[in-house]
Amino acid sequence: MALLSDLVNLDLTDTTPKIIAEYIWIGGSGMDLRSKARTLSGPVDDPKKLPKWNYDGSSTGQAPGEDSEVILYPQAIFKDPFRRGEHILVMCDAYTPAGEPIPTNKRCAAAKIFSSPEVEKEVPWYGIEQEYTLLQKDIKWPLGWPQGGFPGPQLLDVILFDAHYKACLYAGINISGINGEVMPGQWEFQVGPSVGISAGDELWVARYILERITEIAGVVVSFDPKPIPGDWNGAGAHTNYSTKSMREEGGYEVIKKAIEKLGLRHKEHIAAYGEGNERRLTGRHETADINTFLWGVANRGASIRVGRDTEKEGKGYFEDRRPASNMDPYTVTSMIAETTLLWTKS
């Protein structure tokens, strides 16, 4: 008799050309990820060739019961590290039957910004440092901490950490590194450099893969910016950014002008940079105070950090350290592009 693991790992390629596509979308909280699978007649490598699909928005807090249909538009394809073979993960955004983006669809507005000629010609690059905290399943206390107590030296859950890293590489996500963070039980992975809207697609799917893996491992992943009160670093999503002009000779002056614009719209950015960020941006633990905008070279306590190499070479990138770990990457990346490339001081 076949074991369950044998059935889960069945290779279908010798028996059928059909594949499984896991459609992924963002739920009603703006942070929860949802998915469901469908069978396709064969391999697909272009999201435009995938069928639209629908779901019951009343069950996800995204539509009323009397008019609950929400339509999924496929936007990006990744290889499926769970089913493997030709099976795929599909990142989608959501619309009403009339074709209007629903309120939690931040991708649609971001895509409009990234498709504008002024932004496209600058080829914006992003590198997002996604921090998160692993919690014990039943007590919601950080993994490796004694129940109700505080830890000694940090313990590494190497198996889970490495599994996520390899699964993202398998999927085709441009994951560039991983590391343990300052607070015990806190971790980080980096996505990028990715161009434009793809940074948001890749980060959301990397989060989806992480949630699947932690569920299998029997632990909980938290993207709360300050999951444990106290004298610990919070969790952020530092967003590194550059444009073509910043990467070329004379780019340092372009960087400084861009930072000036970001400072003038500081409150608008903070309002869109994640829920509960005020618990993290206290002016301590390698952050600037939430009400203060400042930038500096190699200053991890600044809102915007410029690297020593960028200053020395006169070109490069900068790091926006304000986004919280639960930020929407579509919102943050497009807002940085819109402020630095499209917005003009009135």
From TrEMBL:
Compartment(s) of residence: Cytoplasm
GO MF term list: ATP binding; glutamine synthetase activity
Keyword Cytoplasm found: yes
The keyword Cytoplasm is assigned to this record: yes
Primary location recorded for the protein, binned into one broad class: cytoplasm
Location of the GS beta-grasp domain: 19-99
Top EC class for this record: ligase
Key words of the record: ATP-binding, Cytoplasm, Ligase, Nucleotide-binding
Gene3D superfamilies referenced in this protein's UniProt entry, alphabetically: Glutamine synthetase, N-terminal domain (3.10.20.70), Glutamine synthetase/guanido kinase, catalytic domain (3.30.590.10)
Domain GS catalytic: start-end pairs: 106-346
Enzyme Commission number: 6.3.1.2
Any one GO BP annotation for this protein: glutamine biosynthetic process
Reactions that this protein is recorded to catalyse: L-glutamate + NH4(+) + ATP = L-glutamine + ADP + phosphate + H(+)
Single GO cellular component term: cytoplasm
Any Pfam family hit: Gln-synt_N
Organism domain of life: Eukaryota
Similarity section: Belongs to the glutamine synthetase family.
PANTHER family membership: GLUTAMINE SYNTHETASE (PTHR20852:SF110)
Subunit structure: Homooctamer.
Protein name (Swiss-Prot/TrEMBL): Glutamine synthetase
Organism from which the protein derives: Mikania micrantha (bitter vine)
